[in-house]
């Protein structure tokens, strides 16, 4: 049978970026690893020994299936305007690029609604690994690679395509041979499908582990509130202070930058306290005009001022028996500060324009992102009120101090926003997650929340959120370029900006075509005549470079 050739100019190595200084390898948006085949062979042996051959095969097949699905996403983006067949063969080429085997396409029948493919695998790493730890086999052993081929083709065709191995080097054959077609075309498909399904036994073990962890957390933190997410040391310190204060009546002052989630911590304090069945009332003092703040907090009687046509209870009365959260308390006027101090000292209020004293039972939680001590020194905040509020301060850490919490926060946010916007998102790419961890987060958790919602909206349905879906628009500087495997350009290497270079070219009267020709030939010279390497230097594909050179 004649071997089918890959299309000319099919080099995909420009997608692969090695950043040894940062400990990163990128393939497109996905983070990769270089692993010893010997270590994977040891893992294979350990799995077979511990859970049995069938369970080990299922686990490795599922692992390969997920890897194939990820590469299918990359393939669709790499050649969006190519023929269906040319776009499809990106998968076999990626499989070779990743070191799995030399993939030789023998037969590819590809239509929009059907598929039949046959491939030869030469130098299969998995067959070699099996021979290394178990010796020869009586049946095919390339479980993970079969999972990859099935996952890639299924994701590419949007229907389940089942591959099976008809010859294997571990069985003594010259090389491995695989055949793939829709599952309904295989008579023994029911016997094979279960290897691609989630393992019920392993799944149950994971469920039991989660139940044990939940019980352990319940014993350690019996009333952990789900709205707060985090496991970092900085987060747990703040949470522990909240939990300790919950059972008391102490006034709590939450400190921290804008967007760190002070209201969520206040709600958590309320939910953990004996007042949890009472009301929780939140007030943003900075959002209320100064002339209305007192009536909003303490209430108003009819006729107290123009427009007061009926008596109205204030926030303190509405929070009676519960918790009142005063956000941006540093923005209160001095008059309102004096009345607030009286409420805290006496436990009673008077409505604006009224004479009746009303007893209230309210737990006060205040929050601010300004330095109240400095406000006291400048005369903008009452010293006696500051001391009354500052009995139990809790500093809420900024997001940049709890980077390890970002994956947990992102997972919860994606789940919430995909439900809100009626989309299904497969997750977030490795590069996008690394970008989130490298970003400085001036807007803290609120900025992360906005960014993830934007990512869910921009990402394709059933696709992944990538860097370009997150860091868009003005005002978002983004993470350092070197972390993402992107050259920092002139700004990073020479201190010269793109604008400086453009000005130089214009001033010297260098035609654009001449400059492009010069850059192209210089890249080829630096690559020693290797067009693929030159294309990588320029951030182009080999066909793109060839086209420009011919032009």
Word description of this protein:
- With 551 residues, this protein is of the alpha/beta class.
- Helix content is 47%, strand content 14%.
- The protein contains 24 helices and 16 strands.
- The strands form five sheets. Strands 9-10-13-8-14 form a five-stranded parallel β-sheet. It has a four-stranded antiparallel β-sheet with strand order 4-5-7-6, covered by helices on one side.
- Strand 4 (102-110) and strand 5 form a beta hairpin.
- The longest helix has 26 residues, at 53-78.
- The relative contact order is 0.08.
- The model is unreliable at 220-224 and 487-496 (pLDDT under 50).
* Uncertain parts: 220-224, 487-496
Strand portion = 5-15%
Helix content: 40-55%
Amino- and carboxy-terminal Cα gap: 38 Å
Q: What's the count of strands?
A: 16
What can be said about the biggest beta sheet?
5 strands, parallel
Structure classification: alpha/beta
C-alpha-based Rg, rounded: 32 Å
- Spatial arrangement of strands, main beta sheet: 9-10-13-8-14
Shape: elongated
Q: Mean pLDDT, rounded to whole units?
A: 83
Number of DSSP helices?
A: 24
What is the structure about, briefly put?
The chain has helices at 37-51, 53-78, 84-88, 90-97, 125-134, 143-157, 189-193, 200-220, 233-246, 262-272, 293-298, 315-318, 334-346, 372-377, 383-389, 406-420, 430-438, 444-458, 467-470, 489-493, 498-508, 512-526, 531-538, 542-550; strands at 16-19, 24-27, 30-31, 102-110, 115-122, 161-167, 176-182, 252-255, 280-284, 323-327, 348-350, 357-359, 363-368, 392-395, 427-428, 464-465. The chain is of the alpha/beta class and 551 residues long.
């Amino acid at each position: 049978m004649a071997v089918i050739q890959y299309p000319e100019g099919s080099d995909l190595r420009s997608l692969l970026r090695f950043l040894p200084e940062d400990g990163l390898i990128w393939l497109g948006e996905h983070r990769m690893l270089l692993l010893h085949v010997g270590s994977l062979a040891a893992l294979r042996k350990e799995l077979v020994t511990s859970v049995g051959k069938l369970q080990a095969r299922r686990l490795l097949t599922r692992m390969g299936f997920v890897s194939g699905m990820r590469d299918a996403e990359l393939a669709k983006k790499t050649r969006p305007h190519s023929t269906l067949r040319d776009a499809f063969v990106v998968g076999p080429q990626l499989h070779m690029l990743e070191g799995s085997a030399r993939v030789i396409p023998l037969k590819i029948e590809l239509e929009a609604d059907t598929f039949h493919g046959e491939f030869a695998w030469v130098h299969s790493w998995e067959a070699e690994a099996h021979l290394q730890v178990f010796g020869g086999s009586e049946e095919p052993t390339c479980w993970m690679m079969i999972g990859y081929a099935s996952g890639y083709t299924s994701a590419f065709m949007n229907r389940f395509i089942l591959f099976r191995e008809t010859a294997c080097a571990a069985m003594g054959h010259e090389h491995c041979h695989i055949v793939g077609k829709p599952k309904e075309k295989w008579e023994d498909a029911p016997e094979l499908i279960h290897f691609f399904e989630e393992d019920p036994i392993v799944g149950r073990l994971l469920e039991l582990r989660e139940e044990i962890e939940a019980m352990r957390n319940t014993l350690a933190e019996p009333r952990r509130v789900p709205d707060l997410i985090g496991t970092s040391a900085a987060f747990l310190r703040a949470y522990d202070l909240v939990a300790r204060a919950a059972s008391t009546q102490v006034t709590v002052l939450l400190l921290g930058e804008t967007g760190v989630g002070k209201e969520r911590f206040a709600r958590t304090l309320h939910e953990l306290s004996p007042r949890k069945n009472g009301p929780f009332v939140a007030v943003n003092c900075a959002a209320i005009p100064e002339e209305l703040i007192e009536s909003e907090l303490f209430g108003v009687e009819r006729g107290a001022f123009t427009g007061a046509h009926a008596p109205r209870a204030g926030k303190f009365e509405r929070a009676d028996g519960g918790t009142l959260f005063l956000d941006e308390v540093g923005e209160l006027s001095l008059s309102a500060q004096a009345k607030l101090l009286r409420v805290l000292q006496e436990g009673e209020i008077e409505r604006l324009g009224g004479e009746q004293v009303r007893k209230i039972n309210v737990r006060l939680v205040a929050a601010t992102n300004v330095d109240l001590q400095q406000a006291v020194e400048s005369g903008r905040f009452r010293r006696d009120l500051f001391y009354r509020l500052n009995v139990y301060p809790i500093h809420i850490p900024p997001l940049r101090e709890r980077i390890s919490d970002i994956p947990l926060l992102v997972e919860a946010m994606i789940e919430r926003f995909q439900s809100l916007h009626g989309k299904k998102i497969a997750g977030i790419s490795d590069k996008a997650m690394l970008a989130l961890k490298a970003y400085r987060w001036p807007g803290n958790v609120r900025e992360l929340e906005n960014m993830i919602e934007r990512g869910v909206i921009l990402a394709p349905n059933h696709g992944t959120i990538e860097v370009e879906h997150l860091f868009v628009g003005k005002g978002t500087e983004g993470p350092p370029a070197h972390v993402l495997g992107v050259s920092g350009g002139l700004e990073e290497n020479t201190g010269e900006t793109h604008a400086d270079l453009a000005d130089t070219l214009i001033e010297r009267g260098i035609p654009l075509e001449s400059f492009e020709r010069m850059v192209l030939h210089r890249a080829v010279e630096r690559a020693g005549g290797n067009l693929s390497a030159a294309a990588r230097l320029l951030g182009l594909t080999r066909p793109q470079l060839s086209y420009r050179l011919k032009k």
